[in-house]
Design goal:
Number of helices of chain A: 8
Oligomer: heterodimer
Shape of chain B: rod-shaped
Number of strands of chain B: 0
Strand content of chain A: under 5%
Distance between the termini of chain B: 53 Å
Order of helices and strands of chain B: HHH
Helix content of chain B: over 70%
Radius of gyration of chain B: 34 Å
Radius of gyration of chain A: 19 Å
Largest sheet of chain B: none
Helix content of chain A: over 70%
Structural class of chain B: mainly alpha
Number of helices of chain B: 3
Order of helices and strands of chain A: HHHHHHHH
Shape of chain A: elongated
Largest interface: A-B, 34 and 26 residues
Largest sheet of chain A: none
Amino acid sequence: MREMQDDIQQLLQRRMFDEALQRLLDGYEQKVFRMAAAMLKDAGRAEEVTQDIFLKVWRALPSYDGRALVSTWLYAIARNACFSAIRAESYRRTDPLETVTEPAAPVRPGGDVDWDRLLARLSDMQRQVITLYYFEDRDVKEVADRLGLAVGTVKSHLHRARQALAGMLE
Amino acid sequence: MECTPLCECEECRRLRPALTRVDDGLARHLRPPVLDAGFRTRLRARMARERRHVWADWIPAAVHFASCGAATAACVAYAPNRAGSVIAAAAAITLFSHFLLTAAQSALDAAGDTRY
C-alpha cells in the first residue's frame, strides 16, 4: 500500500498523470466497482458510476496534494459519486402509492431464502455494510476504509444487520 | 455491548442457529462482482473524447484571433497612414465575429447534447 502511495506521488510530481491513473486502476478499479455495486444494488449501473469516478479522479489528479492517503482520497470521490447516483436514481424513480404492494414472504415454501428481498428490508447503511463485508471476504477494516467509517461503527452495523436478518428468518 | 461470533448473551444464544444460517446464506449469495474486461477500453474512450472536447473548445478561438491579427497586420502594412482607423475597425470586427463564433459553438454543443 505504502509502495503504491509513493509510486503515485512520484508520478504526480513528474506530472505523469496518465501513468498515475494506470497505477490507480491496477490497484483499485475492482475495489471501487464492488463498493459501487454494494451501494447501488445494480452491477450495470455500478460500472457506469465506476467509469465516472475514474474520470473524475483523472481530472482531479493534478490537484491531489498528497495530504491524505491516495486510497482515502479515491474512496471519498467514489462515495460522493455513488451518493449522487443514488440521489439521481431516487428522483427519477418514484412509485405511485397504488402500485406499491405488500412484500412477499422472503422464505419460500421449500425453505429457500430470497436474500435480495431480506436485504432490501435493512436500512441503506446496514445493507451497504453487510454486502461489502461479504464482497470483501469478511474484512471489516476494508469495509470501514471503503465507506469512510470507524471499524467499531462497521461492526455495530454488521451486528444489527445480522440480528435483523436472523430475526426475519425465525 | 458488542456481540462477537462467540457472544453468549441471551439474544445471541436464541438467534445462534438463524445467525449461522444468515452467515452461510449471505456468503453464498453475495459473491463479489467482477468488472467487465472492456471496462478500461470504455474508460479510455471517454477520456479521449474529453481530451478532444477540451481541444475543440480552445482551437477555434485561437485560430480566429490569429487570423484576425494577421489580416489586421496586412491591412496596416497596405495602408500605413490610416493605421489607427484600420486597427479600430479590425478590433470591432474581431470582437463581433468572436461573439458570432461563440454563439454558433454553443448552439452546436446544445444540439450535440440533445442527441445523448
